[in-house]
Amino acid sequence: MTTNVTDDTHQYPLASTNIEIDDGDEVEIRVLGANTTTLDCGVGRTSPIGKSEPEHREAALFPNANHCALIGRIGDGPYFAVGAYYKSVSDVGGKLHLGINDVPPEFCGLDPPEKCYEDNFGELAVKVTVIRR
């Protein structure tokens, strides 16, 4: 299945792919055109790998991934780094959400929280493959 990260059904700051994942499913996420796609989350253009400057990582939603990198979350499970490619067996179930690793709404200080992401632009096409177990 190919999906677009800039979906209208946001669970800020991540967008729902509307893909349901079950505990034990193998999940593969591949960014299509990763070498030519550019994103910007307010600190300049980057790829799905994001920006590795430490000062940006500390303020990001998921500090273990680069700022502006593509990240994911399944249901209420932990965030994980996707970058240009990700493959793993899920240990939680729920909808797959994808988005940019940016400042969390609670630290942004704008109301409503969606305003925190008005400086973000770009689009990624991703292919999600789920192997049911």
Secondary structure layout plus pairing:
Elements: E1 2-4, E2 10-11, E3 14-21, E4 26-32, E5 39-41, E6 45-46, H1 54-57, E7 70-74, E8 79-81, E9 85-89, E10 94-100, H2 105-108, E11 120-122, E12 125-131
Antiparallel strand pairs: 1-12, 2-3, 3-10, 4-9, 4-12, 5-6, 5-11, 7-8, 7-10
Protein architecture, described:
The protein has a single domain, classed as Jelly Rolls, CATH 2.60.120. The protein is 6% helix and 41% strand. The protein is built from two helices and twelve strands; from the N terminus they run E-E-E-E-E-E-H-E-E-E-E-H-E-E. The strands form three sheets. It has a five-stranded antiparallel beta sheet with strand order 2-3-10-7-8, with no helix packed on it. Strand 7 and strand 8 (79-81) form a beta hairpin. It is globular, with a radius of gyration of 14 Å. The two termini are 18 Å apart. The model is unreliable at 2-10 (pLDDT under 50).
Query: What's the rounded overall pLDDT mean?
Result: 84
Tally of DSSP β-strands: 12
Question: Going by CATH, what is the homologous superfamily?
Answer: Galactose-binding lectin
| Global morphology | globular
* Amount of helix: under 10%
Entry keywords:
133 residues; globular; Jelly Rolls; mainly beta
Outline:
By secondary structure, this protein is mostly beta strands.
